[in-house]
């Protein structure tokens, strides 16, 4: 999808060497990830991530967890300055929470959207300015990857094989190409990586590629967002 107005869709997640974002015990089994997610490298990564982000897109569960915790950090003098900056950003940024059960937002500057993830984010991308951030909301990020809507991918890869749990990159995603634009390695061996989606320019209307093939490959049909 062409980026017609400069808005980028960015996504961030911490994953293990075997591509998982939680352990075999279920979604709450993320103790292995915590030391790496709280490292200086990860905190600097987070600061870069929110620098140009003006909209946050969250799933309901993620929103309840984040907005139940981070506002208290914003006013804590003991918190790391980078954590306070993220907390203040989250409180003040425009938020879209994707939910089929919530009818009104219990948080300030928040809109509830009961619609497919890709549809909501495509609408946001077509209007306004600034980056659109999906931060550690796996179901949201997966739906955006399925629809090929992610323009920049922030990953913290930890030096652990957790051996079970859900993976970010599942079978059935459309084949896409990414360019590594920034990387940092932390003291614990974690890697903070930034990948930009390498999109080929679409051929002009009515023109065919030099190899005589079809003007456009059939688009992969995204699976329904979970």
TrEMBL record:
GO BP annotation list: riboflavin biosynthetic process
Region (Disordered): 198-226
SUPFAM superfamilies, A to Z: Dihydrofolate reductase-like
One Pfam family it belongs to: RibD_C
Entry-linked InterPro entries: DHFR-like_dom_sf, RibDG_C
Domain (Bacterial bifunctional deaminase-reductase C-terminal) ranges: 7-185
GO molecular function: 5-amino-6-(5-phosphoribosylamino)uracil reductase activity
Annotated protein name in UniProt: Riboflavin biosynthesis protein RibD
Species this protein is from: Glycomyces artemisiae
């Amino acid at each position: 999808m062409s980026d017609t107005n400069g808005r980028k869709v960015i996504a961030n997640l911490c994953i293990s060497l075997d591509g998982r974002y939680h352990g075999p015990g279920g979604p709450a089994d993320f103790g292995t990830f915590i030391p790496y997610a709280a490292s200086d490298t990860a905190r600097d990564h987070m600061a870069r991530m929110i620098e140009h982000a003006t909209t946050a897109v969250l799933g309901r569960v993620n929103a309840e967890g984040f907005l139940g915790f981070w506002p208290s950090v914003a006013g804590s003098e003991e918190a790391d300055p980078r954590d306070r900056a993220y907390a203040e950003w989250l409180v003040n940024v425009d938020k879209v929470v994707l939910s089929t059960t919530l009818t009104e937002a219990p948080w300030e500057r928040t809109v509830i959207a009961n619609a497919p993830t890709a549809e909501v984010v495509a609408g946001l991308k077509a209007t306004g300015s600034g980056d659109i951030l999906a931060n550690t909301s796996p179901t949201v990020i997966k739906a955006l990857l399925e629809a090929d809507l992610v323009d920049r991918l922030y990953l913290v890869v930890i030096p652990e094989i957790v051996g079970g749990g859900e993976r970010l990159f599942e079978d059935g995603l459309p084949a896409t190409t990414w360019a590594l634009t920034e990387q940092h390695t932390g003291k614990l061996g974690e890697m903070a990586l930034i990948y930009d989606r390498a999109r080929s320019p679409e051929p002009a209307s009515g023109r065919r590629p030099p190899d005589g093939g079809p003007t456009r490959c059939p688009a992969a049909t995204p699976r329904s967002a979970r």
